[in-house]
């Protein structure tokens, strides 16, 4: 089955910076991204050849959340999506791994474009979500 990454959209974005908060941020390479990032595949009943990986990223310190993002990555399949595909590794490993670099780039560019130092999200290994058989 041929599958392609089509586009991404920002579903929701909350940004509440404070100069004190952003000055005290440490590099996110040292954190466990599992504490900040969630994702789920979304399949549509009315679109049998498309699906979305919905990422939710919340960057926070102990005191407060200052950046929250819903990032939607759309994929298109050549054939109809069936249950076998939905239960395969592609929606939980491959598709998120393909879309995650776009999320990382968006976050970094957002902070730079907003006049702040970039937040560099660490690389992420999606293979840990592989289903045990």
Automatic annotation (TrEMBL):
<comment type="similarity">
    <text>Belongs to the SecB family.</text>
</comment>
<keyword id="KW-0813">Transport</keyword>
<dbReference type="Pfam" id="PF02556">
    <property type="entry name" value="SecB"/>
</dbReference>
<dbReference type="InterPro" id="IPR035958">
    <property type="entry name" value="SecB-like_sf"/>
</dbReference>
<keyword id="KW-0811">Translocation</keyword>
<protein>
    <submittedName>
        <fullName>Protein-export chaperone SecB</fullName>
    </submittedName>
</protein>
<keyword id="KW-0653">Protein transport</keyword>
<dbReference type="InterPro" id="IPR003708">
    <property type="entry name" value="SecB"/>
</dbReference>
